[in-house]
């Protein structure tokens, strides 16, 4: 049995999207953020020492970290490689690359959030530049492509969805038409809409 510990308004949402896309049965445990701080509740530490979400329990296996969960689900349940390029191909290498970029974008967004909350002077300019650097790279890479690796929806798209949705708070959307189109495509995907239903409304990252 698969159980997902899901924190509202977090990168947990992309895991629900993937679970729905794979057509898997799972139990969803939803946690609210703490009032005031917006932090994760202490109860999550009972699920994993890091006290963060998402946390996936699959039998005896317990995993945190979104990309690790995405790869586990694809390795174990994507038996027809619907969301995974063939191994030892350029497409697979690009897939792995974009998983890494997704993690780097998450860090850049976190720095931007910290600088947004305080008067950090030159550091704020640095963080804005870092977010812009990644957004420009994704924008150019999406030119002429349906998904980030090509015409196949892959785990990299599931991974990238959240840092792009979050990062839109720190950029001018008009500068990134390919990303806006890409996110609209993600957010209207049938499995994504099901994820919204399962989580009672989906994402609202405006506070971040």
TrEMBL record:
Keywords: Transferase. It catalyses: RX + glutathione = an S-substituted glutathione + a halide anion + H(+). GO terms for cellular component: cytoplasm. It holds the Pfam family GST_N. Residues 63-208 form the GST C-terminal domain. InterPro entries: Glutathione-S-Trfase_C-like, Glutathione-S-Trfase_C_sf, Glutathione_S-Trfase, Glutathione_S-Trfase_N, GST_C, Thioredoxin-like_sf. Residues 1-81 form the GST N-terminal domain. The keyword Transferase applies. The keyword Transferase applies. One of its GO terms (molecular function) is glutathione transferase activity. It is an enzyme of class 2 (transferase). Its EC number is 2.5.1.18. Belongs to the GST superfamily. PANTHER family: GLUTATHIONE S-TRANSFERASE 1 (PTHR44051:SF9), GLUTATHIONE S-TRANSFERASE-RELATED (PTHR44051). This is glutathione transferase. It comes from Actinobacillus lignieresii.
């Amino acid at each position: 049995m698969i159980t997902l510990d899901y924190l509202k308004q977090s990168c947990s949402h992309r895991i629900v999207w993937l679970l729905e896309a794979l057509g898997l049965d799972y139990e969803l445990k939803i946690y609210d953020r703490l009032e005031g701080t917006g932090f994760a509740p202490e109860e999550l530490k009972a699920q994993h020492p890091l006290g963060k979400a998402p946390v996936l329990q699959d039998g005896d296996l317990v995993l945190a970290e979104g990309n690790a969960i995405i790869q586990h689900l694809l390795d174990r349940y994507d038996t027809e490689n619907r969301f995974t390029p063939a191994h030892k191909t350029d497409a697979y290498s690009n897939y792995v690359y974009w998983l890494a970029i997704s993690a780097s974008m998450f860090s850049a967004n976190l720095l931007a959030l910290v600088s947004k909350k305080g008067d950090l002077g030159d550091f704020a300019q640095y963080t804005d530049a870092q977010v812009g650097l990644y957004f420009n790279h994704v924008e150019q890479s999406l030119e002429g492509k349906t998904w980030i690796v090509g015409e196949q929806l892959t785990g990299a798209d599931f991974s990238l969805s959240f840092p792009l949705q979050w990062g839109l708070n720190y950029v001018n959307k008009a500068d990134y038409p390919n990303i806006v189109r890409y996110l609209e495509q993600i957010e209207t995907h049938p499995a994504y809409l099901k994820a919204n239903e399962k989580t009672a409304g989906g994402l609202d990252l405006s506070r971040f």
